[in-house]
Each structure stands twice: as C-alpha cells, then as structure tokens.
Amino acid sequence: MSWFRKLDFKLYFFNLLGCFLFSVSLNCFAEPCGISTGGIVGVGQLIFKFTGVPIGILCLILNIPIIILGVKKLGKNKMLKNVALSFFMYVLIDITAVFLPKYEGNAIISAILSGVIGGIGLSLIFMTGLATGGTGLLSAIICDSLPYIDVGKMILILDGSIVVISSFILCTEQDILMSTLSKIIYSTILLFIQSKVIDYIIRTIKVESEKIVSIISKNAKFILDSLQKELQSDIASIETCGENINANREVLIGKIKKKDINKAYKIIREIDNKALVILNNPK
User: Does 69 share its domain with 138?
Assistant: First the structure.
C-alpha cells in the first residue's frame, strides 16, 4: 500500500472540485442562456448547436493538437496528468449536464454567476500546476514562455477571440445581428469576471503561501545547503560589501513557503543562533 500513501489527496481534491465547479458554471448558467464561454468549450458549444454531439466529446477531440504541443513544451510526465484531468473534466461536463438544474432567467445574472463559479473552479486547478486542456492549457504553455503575462489575461485574450469568431458565424447563419451582439456582450462579461477571479485568487494564494526571506550570517553557506536540502527552498547567496556590514558575513535571499517558516527558523538557529532573519511579503 506504499503507492496509496504517496497520493497527494489535497491535489486531487482541488482538481476534482475545480472540475465540478466549472461544470456547474457551464451547465447551470452559461449553456441554458446560450452564452459562449470561449475556448475549446466555446467551440464545442458552437459545434453542438449544429451537430448535437455532446460538448465533452467534442472538447476531447479538439484538444488533441493542444496536447501534442503540450507534450513538446511541458514534457510527458506533466502532460499525462493534464490529459487525465482534461478527460475527467469533459466527461464530467457531459454527465452533470443530465441532472444539474438549469437557470434560464436573466442572461446578465447567468454571465456573472458563470464567471465567478467558473473562475473559482479554474483557479483551484491552476493552483495545483495543472490545466484542463483547451485554452487553459494553451495559456499555461504560453505563460511558461512569457512569465510576465498573467494566466487570466491570456485566457481572456484567447477565449475572447473565439467568442467573437463564433458569434460572427452564428450571425451569418441566423442573420440576427442584435441577438448575436448581445450574446457577445454576455460572453465578454463572463470572461472578464472569470479572468479577474482567476488572477485574484492565484495572486492572493501566492502572496499568502510564500515569504521573502533575508538571512545574514557568518555560516551562510551551511544554512543555504541545509535549507535547500531540507526544504528545497529557492534561496541564493549574495556577497555583502560596505563599511557598515561585517565583511565576514553573507546575505541569503530567496522564497520560503509559509508552512515551512518554523522549520526554517529551527534550521537557521541550530547552525547560527545569532543570524539575522528578515521576512517580507512578495509584491
């Protein structure tokens, strides 16, 4: 049963909960009011209108080229988890579509609720380092190469583009311009709220889960080796200079997870009881 002990139940719980919340946002609010969620799911919604093929199955098919790109960019091991999560997400979408209640009231309320619930669901998934395929995975791949771009903003760009294109197709098919323009507005509200919720939650959790630590000690090298070995912390050594700083001391600067702070203090004090330790929140 050693494999059972190695399972990260917290990771699975967040991913499963995130998938369920996204399914709720789609099946309870977005789809009943005809609001496109953008991305691969939005493309699946569009094709579903013309073919009747379940959205989940369509999304699995449409994800194949993105998965291939992900394998080349992120590696096989990480992509295997993403593929499994994507499969579960799209199967769950089709299953929950059968029994979840559908809200068919005010479209603006649907867009707001779908954006909030879907944003919470996706942020829970992104926090674990995974993505559900589609534009979420594509955004993660792009942001991995361009770290200065927020995941939420990249999803907004990709999903927004799909919303506009799919709405244009619907307009040419149905020739109902005002109706299509209103759906673009509802989809824009949904995507804007969803992206803001994702960015807010991820940034808040990141700030609360990490601390910037500065350590000044005569035994900086031993402290650095111990912290990296015991906590796998991202810490580097910097040589100090100046008249007001003891030349025999080095400065260690890096990030430590909030849950590891007490353990880090213990390691530091065991090596150098006189070391100066300063903690700050990352900005």
Answer: yes
Residue 44 has which token pair?
């699946």
| Residue 166 structural domain | 9-207
Among 26-30, 66-70, 126-130, which range has the highest average pLDDT? 26-30
Whether residues 179 and 41 share a domain: the answer is yes
CA 206, CA 193: separation in Å to the nearest integer? 20
187, 37 contact by CB (below 8 A) = yes
Considering the domain architecture, whether residues 48 and 116 belong to the same structural domain is answered as yes
Extended beta strands in 103-249, E state: 210-217, 234-239
Strands in 210-217's sheet, in edge-to-edge order, are: 234-239, 250-257, 210-217, 276-280
- pLDDT band for position 113 (50/70/90)? very high
Encode pLDDT of 31-65 as tens digits: 888 787 777 887 887 788 788 888 888 888 888 88
* Model confidence at 119: pLDDT above 60: yes
Domain contains 91:
yes
Residue 3 lies in a domain: no
User: Which pLDDT score, from 0 to 100, does residue 198 have?
Assistant: 85
Q: What residues contact 108, with CB distance under 8 A and at least 6 apart?
A: 186, 189
For CA atoms 243, 245, 247, 250, give the dihedral sign: negative
When divided into structural domains, the chain yields a total of: 2
For residues 148 and 30, give the distance between their C-alpha atoms in angstroms, rounded to a whole number.
Answer: 31
State the pLDDT at residue 62. Answer: 84
Domain identity same for 120 and 144: yes
Taking the alpha carbons of 37, 41, 46, 49 in that order, is the dihedral positive or negative? negative
Q: Are residues 246 and 132 in the same domain?
A: no
pLDDT at 133 over 60: yes
